[in-house]
Amino acid sequence: MDVLKQKILSEGKVLSDTVLKVDSFLNHQIDPVLMQEIGKEFAQRFKGFDITKILTLESSGIAPAVMTGLTLGVPVVFARKRKSLTLTDHLYSAEVYSFTKKESNEISISQDFISSEDTVLIMDDFLANGQAVFGMIDILNQAKARIAGIGIVIEKGFQEGGKKIRQQGYHVETLANIAKLSDGNVTFKKEETCI
Amino acid sequence: MDVLKQKILSEGKVLSDTVLKVDSFLNHQIDPVLMQEIGKEFAQRFKGFDITKILTLESSGIAPAVMTGLTLGVPVVFARKRKSLTLTDHLYSAEVYSFTKKESNEISISQDFISSEDTVLIMDDFLANGQAVFGMIDILNQAKARIAGIGIVIEKGFQEGGKKIRQQGYHVETLANIAKLSDGNVTFKKEETCI
Q1: Per residue, what are the HEC states of chain B?
Q2: What CATH number should be reported for the domain holding residue A109?
Q3: What is the mean pLDDT of residues B23-29?
Q4: Tell me: the pLDDT tens digits for B139-172?
Q5: A130 is in an annotated binding site
Q6: B61 is in an annotated binding site
Q7: Record: contact B32-A58, CB cut-off 8 A
Q8: Which positions does UniProt annotate for xanthine binding (chains A, B) (predicted)?
Q9: Nearest chain B residue to A20, by CA
Q10: What ipTM goes with this model?
């Protein structure tokens, strides 16, 4: 997705060979117009998949997921990273380790909002090691929901997550797939559109 | 805002005289079409305020804020509830106590995204005791930004936050202001549109 890649090239900050900071439009400050474009792009790519719900993870997944849900005409459920007092039981949960934050979180959703009747699009802002996506797959398996595919805004294609997920047969759509981060530069892969 | 009030009446769950659960369309599952309507409503109410940025708080503030930002044509910044490893210093921070979660969090934003040049609309999903809004006011005062006003999706008008904030002279727009929660029923106040 060219407009996203241009934004990454102009505003992304390469902090190391593994860390790309996109806080100016996705992870801290959000560009709503770009999110709308991202939503339209995912809706186009997953058109005809009979999606009934989108599942994402707080917080940075919410904006692109809501814009995609708006275009597809389906609700978005965001998994929470810890239990709150108003969501105490009746949950599907999974353990997710964040390599960025070096901590483990339980992610969970209420059993009220995803069921075996649902065909779900999993979405997230970043895909690196795949921990968050595997956590969401785990949750959807508990709910016996069908997984339509996985929509990722930015994939770190040089890490293992995308490969592992595709090897398990999931359809992954990545809007900007990064081949390499080095010397302050971002090199993109060609877009992955195959299973 | 009638469509929101109808949604609260049909899907909200009154768990006690102080707790209203709206997990089916705002706080856990999100209704993107309703969020778009909410965004348009806030944009209409704050038209002419020369807003340059929206400040909200993760996670439930993000969806309504992004939709408002889309209509107003301005970026959204969401304050984070704890520091992450990629956002370690160069922050404006404030302490916020959550009565719902019975815990204190530090909320913070990067100094990169709000400055003394900005006129900011503060947004949040709920207003009860006002702790989160006062935290965001604190942050904006540190940044020397102008505060255009405060946009709240659901106000618990029977708690003190809204009164305290209005007494300090802030312009507060509330889309659904609740006078009372009792016996499973929600009673709304008239909408507050005055300073």
Answers
A1: CHHHHHHHHHHCEECCCCCEECCCCCCCEECHHHHHHHHHHHHHHCCCCCCCEEEEECCCCHHHHHHHHHHHCCCEEEEECCCCCCCCCCEEEEEEEECCCCEEEEEEEECCCCCCCCEEEEEEEEECCCHHHHHHHHHHHHCCCEEEEEEEEEEECCCCHHHHHHHCCCCEEEEEEEEEEECCEEEECCCCCCC
A2: 3.40.50.2020
A3: 98
A4: 999 999 999 999 999 999 999 999 999 999 999 9
A5: yes
A6: no
A7: no
A8: 20, 27, 156
A9: B86
A10: 0.94
